Structure formats: structure tokens, C-alpha cells
Amino acid sequence: MVNERLSYYRMPLVLLGIVTAACVATVIKPPAGRLNWLLEVGPGLMGIVILIGLYRRFPMSHMVYICVFLHMFVLIYGGYYTYAETPLGNWAKQFFGFSRNHYDRVGHIALGVFPAFIIREVLLRKTPLQRGGWLYFIIISIVLAVAAFWELLEWWVTLIVASDVGSAFLGSQGDIWDAQWDMFLALIGASAALLPLFLHHAAPRRIPSPFI
Q: Is residue 74 part of a domain?
């Protein structure tokens, strides 16, 4: 039993160690400043603290921990440079002739993809919901609510903190529809991530016939 528990927690601990090292390395002197780094990465760190606090009573699947791990690196990269100034986004802007750095779009797709699996696992394990249409509708609704709250959070931060940091955190880059795009992309991300699972569970099961 002890060996099984140690084996189960080995992967999450390794992932946690990698994320911790990445955070320490990037928070020392980020080009975007430590305040911007904290604003971008802080929510992910809070999520990790919650998972650590609950790991004995409510250990999550390895899939969830991998999702958190991948999402953290999306946040860390954006927080290190600001989403509007990431080298990867600037390269894509020049190579494809985009009018803006689209890395923030990637971040909001990730805001739909990775939390969707966390929400799904919590609902399946802690509520009477079963796999099916209603489960996925509620997951996507929660993701959309989180994306909308994030837009409110960006607005509040822009009003409260220094204007330069707030504008960098907002990351609209002059797009008047930035908030709508961000929520829409989170919706698309969650829907695309959950679609294979929905189709798998919605597919009719063939009942073996005693005459075949």
C-alpha cells in the first residue's frame, strides 16, 4: 500500500519540482518586471497550493497534474515577457504577417483546455453527474464563467495598479474586441478538448446478440 502511494505521487512531485525551478529561474529578473510576472503566474501558483492542500483528502489523477503542469508553463512564459512581447508570438507575427502578437490568444485557449479536465474530474467524483451531454454542458459553462471572470480581473487590475503594468496585463494591443475574443477562445478550447470524450461516451454501444 505504501509503495503504491509513493509510486502514485512520484510523477506529481517531479512535475512540481520542475515548475518550482522554472518559477525561481524566471522570477529573479523577468523583462516584464516581477509585478507583471506575479499577476500572470500568481493564479496558477494559487491553484497549485490548493492541490497540495487537498492531495491527501482528494488526490487528483495524473492527467490533471499534467494539465496543471502544461498550463503553468503557458503562464510562466507569458508572465516572463508579457503576452504582447513574447518572442514566440513576435516570430509568428513577423513570419505570418499578423497584425499583433497572438500569444495571448494561445493563453486563453489554454484557459479553456486545461481547466476543463480539472472541472470534469471534480464533477464526476463529487457530484451525481454522469458522463453525457449535461456533464459537458456544465463543464463548458463553468469554463466560460472562469474566462469571463478573468476579463473582469484584468479590468480591475488595470484600474488599480500602475497603468503601464495594468496595460501589459490587459494585453489588448489595441483590439477593442479583445475581451470577447478571449472568452470565445476559452470556449473553443474547452469544447475542442472535451469533444473526443463526449463522442466516445455518446457513441451507441453494440449489444451482443445471442444469435450471432
A: yes
